[in-house]
Amino acid sequence: MTDIFFYIFSIVALAGAFGVVISRNTVNGAMCLIVTFLSMSALFVLLEAYFLAVIQVLVYAGAVMVLFLFIIMLLDVEESAARKTSVYTWAASVIAFGILIVGVVAIYSADSIRTKAESLPEASGASLKAFGYELFTTYLLPMQLTGFLLLIAMIGVIALSKKAKVDS
Amino acid sequence: MEINPIVLKFVYAAVVVSVIMGLCSYAVLAERKISSWIQGRVGPNRTALPLVGGIPILGPFLTRLGIFQPIPDGLKFLFKEDVLPGHVNKFYFMMAPVISLVPALTTVVVVPFGRFVNEAGDVVPLVLANVNVGLLFLFAISSLGVYGVVLAGWSSNSKYPFLGGIRASAQMISYELAMGVSVLPILMWVNAPGKEGTMNLFDIAVAQNGFWFAMWMPLSAIIFLVCLFAETNRLPFDMAESETELVSGFHTEYSSFKFGLFFVGEYAHMVIGSCVFTLLFLGGWNPLPFVTLESLGMGQGILGAVLSVGIFLGKMCAMMFFFMWIRWTLPRFRYDQVMKLGWTILLPLSIANLILYIFIIYYLDTGL
Amino acid sequence: MPFVIKRKPLNLMEKLYLPEIARGLSTTFKKIWEKPVTLEYPEQRPTIPEGYRGVPTLVRDPEGREKCVSCQLCEFVCPPKAIRIVPGEIPEDSEYAHVEKGPKEFDIDMLRCIYCGMCEEVCPEEAIWLQNQFSMSGYSREEMVNNKDKLYELGGTLPDEHFKWNKKKDAAAKGGGH
After folding, report:
1. Which fold would CATH assign to domain A1-82?
2. In angstroms, rounded to a whole number, what is the distance separating the alpha carbons of residues A100 and A89?
3. pTM tops 0.95
4. CB contact, 8 Å: B34 with chain C?
């Protein structure tokens, strides 16, 4: 039963991701991304990481993508039908894809990942309390750094979007 | 006979969804009746069922109350001509009403309607899925409802719906933050040190056997309530459809049953919103602060379960009434006022509120 | 002379906004218990004030004679040209043969009528009256044209007792004019 659900949601997630890449219409792309996010959160549910699943929907599908859609609509992005793909783009994407494949193979062939499913420790995302505790003890520094990074980005945006004073 | 538990879940889900749909259709009636009372009118009072309406005193009384009105209202949505304008993006145009209704009905699964004390003395919640992250699940899924509005606005390919869709998305982003932050004090109090971590709505309701959260966290309650109005697109925050400026906003191009789905979706959001507010701040199914059904000696068995559901539904209906009451009291905000209220008042206020309760809860838990 | 109305600065309670909302809520809550002002139309009819200009009708005098003498002034004055009159002779053997004329056909198109009351004002015989009826409905354009029978049915009898034409007849019989 779980296997069937896993394959269904994996296929939907991959199809959605593929749709994001190939769709010409930006709104279509955004909707495909939402589908991907939702099926990814379904995969989290299958891993019994309910908290992560819900956060995935709440933050990405619920807030970030609404913002995306808002921006797409406001900017009224033209359908990029006429645009030609340059040679550089092709080369870059082929190289990036190659690196991705190498990475996946490398990770998969490493020994560390080949542990039995039974021997895996309980994922820290499974329990709410464990998640919060780990976040504020073991992973405090990465979290603070990430927050700081976001703060920098936010200040940058404010500085950029602020109107320059016109001397009269 | 053994019934497959999965089949049983389907049956429960069907029952709950049909109850919610029934509540929605009667919420429409209540809205019409309450608006008419507040405005000194009579409201729907003509529709009579052939047999029931003929009962001597009861029939005319029910007819005057408009009890049968939802039936023709629904039929009207079904049988009116369904116009599909030529200039729309057909796929999203068809999807949008469904997308706006489905999240509202999905969130129902984590809302507990009452509790049942079984023979072993355990308190069992009456809920479809008793998940640990219930509150977050609810926020997450209900935030998806805005896609229906945004897509409807965009796919209609016409100016007023488009403006409505943009407003809806901006408004949703602005108020969800304050809404989330305003419930954090409750979660902190419920997840006191030494307890199992929970965001379960049932546990939150049980934690209000003494004080209700609305009593000692009034600021949280008010912020949450205001955000709830904004999130359900109700007046005074119905920027997405504001008739005076945008014809009727995102559903201008919709007709017949597609419009009906939007309409039901709005009321379903209201029903769920009222449920959540009742569970978070109004003590769930506790009849009065400090008075539980157990302390009245009526908490056992089927009677206790029915009473708890009844009290819960009563509080929910009171909240629904409040929604409608506000609608006919306050005029609509201007759009810039809505944004200003969200970002410059509610968000800072909710953060200040959070910090205040961090200290209060810290001192309450550790002792001064 | 233009003048500026000073806007009163809000006091603290008004600035807090919520107390004012509570006040508004109490106002609307009181309204719920007030008696509705609705007139439930088909059962309850509005009281028609005196001088009401409803549907134009033709009237008879207490003897049952149609008062209209087919002078066509109303047809002439009618702004939307809703009135059509075909004048007819009054037969020799009639009691009122001396009146000379009466309407053979008298149609008022209620789809054109604007209820201005000029026909009533202009009528020298007080034969056309805008009465209390205010609700006209029909399924076709033809139905909305009131013919002579319909107009007399709607109009009824005007209870004036001066019998102008009888007096004229008497005077003529005595050999005098006026």
Report:
1. Four Helix Bundle (Hemerythrin (Met), subunit A) (1.20.120)
2. 16
3. no
4. yes
